[in-house]
Design a protein that fits this description.
heterotrimer; A mainly alpha (about 120); B mainly alpha (about 230); C mainly alpha (about 675); B: about 230 residues; mainly alpha; Four Helix Bundle (Hemerythrin (Met), subunit A); about 0% strand; elongated; C: about 675 residues; Cytochrome C Oxidase, Chain A; two-stranded antiparallel ribbon; 2 strands; about 60% helix; globular
């Protein structure tokens, strides 16, 4: 009972931010420059006056997604959280909600016989 | 028997470890987990607002193109003609201005992470500088939004006029309200910092405000592309 | 050496070792008693009891509305209620029952029980927990003031557009519905964040997720559903409020708006809503049935995964409420398939409960009877639900009394019966005495007879074509007999439902007259951790953290395998339960701010409806409350909150058992 080897799941310590997992200041600036550049490209792309809707929209959405991932992964630390115990939970909780939102609202559009873009 | 139970307890429990952190089942901070859950729910909120905007905008254009007088009477004729010609609301935007706003908000995310970094390093001056910068940039963004709204209003886009106005102002208005809430939180942090009490042991608070702030920025990343850039 | 380490209550902040008096903020209430105790409590148990009490109060309102409906429909061409008033009555009946009765009773059980089941001292954020309750309660009260301020909402509990707009519903009733529920929804949302964090992060040592009780799992899934569904309703309500109060055009058909947007947004929320109403009750019977069948739950992993599956799939079936709304054949077919699939995990649960009962040494007390009734009656409701899933059938059934029968069987015959069973089961734990079995069994049979007499005939009425939401019907339509039967049944049901209050009172007085005998920690010889502590639950819950090595750990401390591999009882619960000694335990301090913050919000709500000037003081109260909350000390600096020395952090190895409190965030 109590004296047998109890391989229990011992509670974990909550560590303060382990500095080894932190991005450096330079990395933050690099991410920011990438975000700014992507924004500039997006705007330029929208000015091209492309007729083909897919050619216009898909790259814009792709760039938007990359910006999203940059902010979430670097600034919101999700990429670095993947490396700590159970840190994936943050990405899963957020990612699952996001995926649910996208799928559900996409289906709503489909029910209206419209596509969102 | 009960001694062993207590002994077990003593070996597994120590409410505080060296860092002053606390034991949790997953080793994650309660507050951080709570913030991520909250942001998850916000995805559903803004998703619904964005979807409503897209549907409303599409319906608006359909009515404009069809010449529905209920709709075409709600905005100046020149604008209506431009919408009809373009088959979209693209002519209405001031993309350069909104791009500048977006850039400012992105920059505020940068200053936010720099503020957090400064707090973890107990760098009082940098903490205050970067926090203030973030709040300032955020306020500039809001000022830009206010300017944009008043400009649109003067050009003829009202809240209660048509679907386009209602959905645009609601979506961006809610985003702006979220930014404003963030600015209030930043100023509160700044206040604490100026009282000399924002040290590295409170880094997590700054991190949490940061998470919220970055999320609000992400929503704008989505809004900028989906609302303004994609016709 | 007591080292109180008082500190500013910024979340996650630990002390810098300085005694800091926050600037001008109120200190925490000191040893409050009586009413102030309840108004400022952050104790999950008291909050759970408040949720339950509030729900019973609203149950009376919803129940009166139900009786009015049945009186109106008892005979054809009845003029007891005008058509307009009838609209208000059924709308408010549905709204109150869904949002202010079933959901809060679920919250009551989850709040009271889940921290006990995972071995925690309280939830992750005790003050937010208090706030969640008060904001729900004020929102519910606000909704019901509509009766006195121009009439209740009258568009059906789902308030479809464009009927919910000013043009067709000019009274303020729908505004109250809208804003009142928006406010109550805040409680659900904040509560969900709180409870999810608690389940994931505050379990006893050794309690992996697959060792937590089924009720805790169902609580977790329910809270995830709330987290993700409430925001969708919030947006729908924002759009409606914008239209009604500020002239927006979201549902303005003349402007080209599509009213179906309301339906989609509402039902994307609404379908997960019904699952989150039933899942706590599923959890409850999953605790009751093994206890009184004297067997472990059959197929624990399947019970867990089916619960998760129900939650997950619940987001994929919403448009089965819209089969006749013109969504197009592709959508209809898609949602038919999805809806049929969702019956599978529910069926798994039913089978597992039956398999648990099968071969068990059944103790058919009141709690067990109600649990079995849930299984039976929910199955009936589930079967009619499966028939709705087929869009071709549903085209006939929708908007008839067949649907009314369906959802009352699953919600009343299912969820509510489960809740009553839960009351009988956990009453001794919460209050220290059992409810009378005699009255209980009488109540049970009264409710079963009354319930089935009321709602059984509605299947027939529905298939005969009686539409919903019609204030009367004609003699020639042929609905007379069954309506009269239903009304007759509803009175029996009403009496039966009220009996639980009678039972509480009678049993309490009997207990007091007997000298308040100790009911013991484990009167049912049950399986989960809440039975390992004294009854009524000590304020501090556990003296020390229970260490868990397996599912139903408490049970296996009482029953162990002998040399022949047969389970034998080696201890009674009373022998090995935690003694209830709270010495040195540090509890989260009570606080004024949650109720203050909650109070400001309906003031804003009334302002939005009647006069925008009111918004200002409301917002100021809320904002001031938030700042007070953030700034108040973690504990009252002067009052000795604990009964013994606090050996916080001296780290010399002689930490008392009191050290073993789970982390309580200072929020």
């Amino acid at each position: 009972m109590a004296d047998s080897t109890v391989t229990t799941e011992v509670a974990h310590d909550v560590h303060d931010e382990d500095h080894a997992h932190h991005p450096t200041e330079r990395q933050y600036w690099v991410v920011f420059v990438a975000l700014a550049a992507l924004t500039a490209i997006e705007v330029a792309w929208s000015y091209l006056g492309l007729d083909n809707r897919a050619a216009l929209v898909l790259p814009l959405l792709a760039m938007m997604a990359v910006k999203f991932l940059l902010v979430a992964g670097a600034f919101m630390h999700l990429y670095f959280d993947l490396k700590i115990i159970n840190g994936r939970l943050f990405s899963w909780a957020f990612g699952f909600s996001l995926l649910l939102a996208v799928v559900v609202y996409f289906v709503v559009f489909a029910a209206f016989d419209k596509l969102p873009f | 028997m009960s001694d062993v139970a207590v002994a077990q307890v003593v070996e597994t429990h120590d409410a505080h470890d060296d860092h002053g952190g606390h034991r949790t089942s997953l080793g994650l901070s309660n507050m951080k987990l709570a913030m991520w859950l909250f942001l998850g729910s916000e995805c559903l909120l803004f998703g619904a607002l964005i979807s409503t905007f897209l549907l409303s905008k599409a319906n608006f254009i359909t009515e404009v193109v069809a010449g529905n007088p209920n709709v075409t009477s709600t905005m100046p004729a020149e604008l209506i003609e431009e919408f009809q010609a373009a088959g979209s609301v693209e002519p209405f935007w001031d993309i350069p201005f909104t791009s500048a706003s977006s850039f400012i908000l992105l920059m505020s995310s940068l200053t936010m992470v720099l503020a957090h970094k400064a707090v973890t390093e107990d760098d009082d001056l940098q903490t205050k500088v970067w926090l203030a910068a973030t709040a300032l940039l955020g306020s500039t963004f809001i000022a830009g939004q206010v300017y944009e709204f008043t400009a649109f209003f003067r050009e003829g886009l009202t809240y209660d006029g048509n679907l386009f106005g209602s959905s645009f102002y609601t979506l961006t208005g809610f985003h702006g309200a979220h930014v404003t809430g963030g600015i209030l939180m930043l100023m509160s942090l700044l206040f604490v910092a100026f009282r000399g009490k924002l040290k590295s042991d409170r880094a997590e608070t700054v991190e949490l405000v940061g998470l919220y702030w970055h999320f609000v920025d992400i929503v704008w990343v989505l809004i900028f592309t989906i609302v303004y850039l994609i016709p | 050496m007591a080292d109180l380490e008082p500190r500013l209550a910024l979340p996650s902040g630990s002390s810098n070792g300085r005694v800091a008096r926050p600037l001008g903020a109120f200190s925490r209430p000191r040893n409050p008693t009586g009413l102030v105790n309840w108004l400022t409590t952050v104790d999950h148990k008291k909050i759970g009891i408040m949720y339950g009490s509030a729900a019973l109060f609203f149950l009376l309102i919803g129940g009166v509305a139900a009786i009015l409906i049945r009186l109106q429909l008892a005979v054809p061409n009845n003029e007891l209620l005008s058509a307009d008033f009838y609209n208000q009555v059924y709308t408010m009946h549905g709204t109150v029952m869904v949002f202010l009765v079933v959901m809060p009773i679920g919250a009551a059980f989850s709040n009271y029980l889940m921290p006990l089941q995972v071995g925690a001292r309280d939830v992750a954020f005790p003050r937010i927990n208090a706030f969640s309750f008060w904001v729900f309660f004020f929102g519910g009260l606000m909704l019901n003031t509509s009766w006195f301020l121009g009439g209740g909402a009258d568009g059906g509990w789902f308030n479809y557009a464009p009927n919910n707009g000013i043009a067709f519903s000019p009274s303020h009733g729908i505004d109250f519905w809208n804003i009142g529920l928006l406010i109550a929804g805040l409680g659900s949302l904040t509560g969900s964040i709180n409870l999810i964090t608690t389940v994931l992060n505050m379990r006893a040592p050794g309690m992996s997720m697959m060792k937590t009780p089924i009720f805790t799992w169902m609580t977790l899934v329910t809270q995830f559903l709330l987290l993700l569904a409430i925001p969708v309703l919030t947006v729908a309500q924002i759009l409606l409020a914008s239209d009604r109060l500020f002239g927006a055009n979201f549902f303005n058909v003349s402007q080209g708006a599509d009213p179906l947007l309301w339906q989609h947004l509402f039902w994307v929320f609404g379908h997960p809503e019904v699952y989150l109403m039933i899942l706590p009750a599923f959890g409850i019977v999953s605790e009751i049935i093994p206890t009184f069948a004297r067997k472990p739950i059959f197929g624990y992993p399947f019970m867990v995964f089916s619960g998760v599956a129900i939650g997950f799939m619940g987001f994929g079936v919403w448009a089965h409420h819209m089969f006749v709304s013109g969504i197009g054949p592709l959508s209809v077919v898609g949602f038919t398939f999805a809806t049929m699939f969702i019956a599978v995990p529910t069926g798994v649960k039913i089978l597992n409960w039956l398999a648990t009962i099968w071969g068990g040494k059944l103790i058919l007390n009141t709690a067990m009877l109600f649990a079995i009734a849930l299984v039976t009656q929910f199955t009936v409701g589930g079967l009619s639900g499966v028939s709705h899933a087929l869009a071709a059938h549903d085209t006939q059934q929708t908007d008839t009394y067949y649907i009314v029968a369906h959802f009352h069987y699953v919600l009343f015959g299912g969820a509510f019966f489960g809740f009553v069973g839960g009351m009988y089961f956990w009453w001794p734990k919460a209050f220290g005495y059992k409810l009378s079995e005699t009255i209980g069994k009488t109540q049970f049979w009264t409710m079963v007879v009354g319930f089935n007499l009321t709602f059984g005939p509605m299947h027939i009425l529905g298939l005969q074509g009686m539409p919903r939401r019609m204030h009367t019907y004609d003699v020639v339509q042929g609905f007379n007999t069954w309506n009269l039967v239903a009304t007759f049944g509803s009175f029996i049901l009403g009496v039966g439902t009220l009996t639980v209050l009678v039972n509480a009172l009678v049993s309490y007085r009997k207990w007091v007259r007997a000298g308040r005998p100790d009911v013991g920690p484990d009167p049912w010889d049950a399986r989960a951790l809440e039975w390992s502590i004294q009854s009524p639950t000590p304020e501090h819950n556990f003296d020390y953290d229970p260490v868990v090595t397996q599912l139903d750990d408490w049970w296996y401390r009482k029953y162990q395998k002998d040399e022949n591999g047969v389970l034998r009882q080696v201890h009674t619960g009373a022998e090995i339960a935690q003694p209830g000694n709270g010495e040195g335990v540090h509890l989260p301090a009570p606080s004024y701010w949650p109720i203050v913050v909650a109070f400001g919000i309906p003031v804003v709500g009334y302002g939005l409806i009647f006069s925008l000037w009111l918004v200002i003081p409301g917002a100021l109260i809320t904002l001031a409350g938030l700042y007070g909350w953030a700034l108040e000390p973690a504990d009252d600096l002067d009052v000795d909150e604990h009964q013994g020395d606090d050996d916080h952090g001296d780290g010399d190895g002689d930490d008392t058992a009191a050290e073993a409190d789970k982390e309580l965030e200072k929020v």
